Amino acid sequence: MSSAVLPRREPIPIAAETYVIQAIHGEGEGPLAVHMNAMVIRGREPVVVDTGTPVDRDSVLEQVFGLVEPEDVRWIFVSHDDVDHYGNMAALMEACPRATIVGSWYLMQRMSAEGPMPSPDRWCWVGDGESFDVGDRLLRAVRPPLYDSPTTRGLLDPVTGVYWASDCFATPVPRATGFVDEIDPDEWAHGFTTFQKWNSPWVEMVDGPRYHAEVERLRALAPRTIATCHGPTIGPAMVDRAFELLHAVPAAQVPPQPGQPVLAEIVAAMQADALAPA
Questions:
Q1: Is the overall model pTM greater than 0.90, yes or no?
Q2: In whole angstroms, how large is the CA radius of gyration of the chain?
Q3: Which residues, 6 or more positions from 117, have their beta carbon under 8 angstroms from its beta carbon?
Q4: Are 103 and 122 a contacting pair, CB within 8 Å?
C-alpha cells in the first residue's frame, strides 16, 4: 500500500438501513485494485460486520460512527480471523462499551494466539447455520461455499435479504465501485472467477456434486443482495448471474499468480526510478 494519504470514503447504502463501509487498496497504483470493505446494519441493536484493515482505521471508524453512535453499537460480527476482517476489532470494542463480538469458539482460539482478547462476557459464539437475536430480527451465520479460513461464516439478514459473503463473491476492480453492474460484465466474470480460484485453490480438489450442493444451499436462502469484503456489492438484478459464476468456478481456467519474473521487473523499475535525474 502506498504511503499517500488515503482518500475519504463514504458509506454506500445497499438496502434499508444497511451500508457498506468502503475501503480499497491499490487504486491508482496498477490496473486493478481490491476492496477491503465492512458493513453496518442499523437495526434496533446496530451491528458492525467485519472491521477492515488497520491501515484504514481512521476511515472505517469515521464511516461507522457517522452512521451509529459508539454507545449504540451492540454487535460486532467477525467473519473470520484474517487481519482485513478483524483489524479494527479492538479499536471498535474499546470505543463501543456495549458491543459484543460474534464469532465461533474456533475463531476466538485462533485469534487469542495474537494477543489478549476481550472478556468472555463480551463474546457470542455462533456456528454455521445458527442465529443470534439483534432485537428486531435474527441474523443467521451461513458459511459461504468458498473461503480461505476454517473459521469463515457469512451473515444473512432475513429482513433485507442482504448476505455478507466475507471473501466469497469478490472481484478486483479498476477503481472503487459501489455495485458490480458498474463494471463491464466480461471483466466482472473474469475477475470474479480468478479471485475465487486464487483465494480458494482447494476448490479444484472437491467433489463436484457436493460443491454444487453447497452453492445451492446458500442460493436456497434467497439472498436478494450480496455484499463482500473484497469487491462491489451484487445487487438484486445480478444475484442469479453471480450464482452461475460461482457454480462454474471449479472447472474454470484462470491465469497463474504473478511469480518471481514479475517481482524482478517491479524491483528493476523501482531502481531505475531511484537513479533517474530529478
A1: yes
A2: 19
A3: 108, 111, 123
A4: no
Tens digit of each residue's pLDDT (9 = 90 or more) over 27-47: 878 788 999 999 999 999 999
Q: Identify the burial level of 252 via C-beta atoms within 10 angstroms of its C-beta, where 0-12 means exposed, 13-18 middle and 19 or more buried.
A: middle
Diameter of the chain by CA atoms?
63
Q: For the chain, which residues make up each domain, given as ranges? A: 12-275
CB 160 within 8 A of CB 180: no
Instruction: Report the amino acid identity of residue 188.
Output: W
Fold of 12-275: Metallo-beta-lactamase; Chain A (3.60.15)
Q: Residue 267: which region, alpha, beta or left (left: phi > 0; alpha: psi -120 to 50)?
A: alpha
What secondary structure does DSSP assign to 77-105, as a single string? E---SSHHHHTTHHHHHHH-TT-EEEE-H
C-alpha cell read off for 143:
458459511
Burial 43-77 (b: 16+ CB within 10 A, else e): bebbbbbbbbbebbbebbbebbbebbeeeebbbbb
Report which of 173, 185, 189, 231 is spatially closest to residue 33, judged by C-alpha positions: 173
